[in-house]
Amino acid sequence: MKTDVLDPVGVRLSGVQVADDPTALVPALRGLLAEHGVAVLPGQVLDDPAFLAFLRGFGPLSFTAGEAPLDGFPDLNVISNVGRWGTDTPPRSSFHVDTSYVSSPPAYTALRAVTVPARGGATQFTNQYRAAETLPEELRRRVAGRTITHVVTGVDPEAGETEADHPILRPHPVTGRESLYLTTPARCAAVSGLEQDEADALVAALYEHSTRADNTYAHAWAPDDLVVWDNGCVLHRADHAGVVGDRVMHRAMVGGYGDPEH
Asked: For a pLDDT cut of 70, what percent of the chain falls above it?
């Protein structure tokens, strides 16, 4: 297996097939994801059962309450632009953390490329370790000891959690490294100890700092790509600008950083 570090976030792993032994890579990937945030595995001949077997090696799977599962696979959902162009609700995406409005957000998210557009449709990732390390001192003083209240938008979780408080400077559960932990501003409802206008301005400044171009890696999808990321140290978004053709991904999430299922 060859490992190439991506700038400013992620690693690319080549010369390996996940389907040959779906859980064999998990121990190495745990460490790589905790350190680098994103793992790109190209050329994976992988069906949905093998995809799920691979992710179960990390731990119990998670699913966002209120989203529609893939037929026959209740732990998967479809990320797709099919049928949405030219409608009143074309795909939109802003940098975010998956399901951060719960007290224990999913540790990992993975996408398996099913249909890749002829042009565009990259997924972008930010390095939240670097965002924390490069935080201007004035901003660091303002966020020290504070939390953000993350709230749900876009789905109805019914009886599930709808909001949770998380430290802005959050130690990563595996590495202990400080990460700047926030999500799209629409889901950042409050900052502890601040009035609403102050909170909104602080979140906007942190978000702008995190998502600078020099802190962002754009993954251009190829057929049979598999990408896994660590929600504890990256933000992500789909770039829907200028997409030509269908873009279909199957998505799954892992609930925590603990031991795998047995």
From this structure: 95
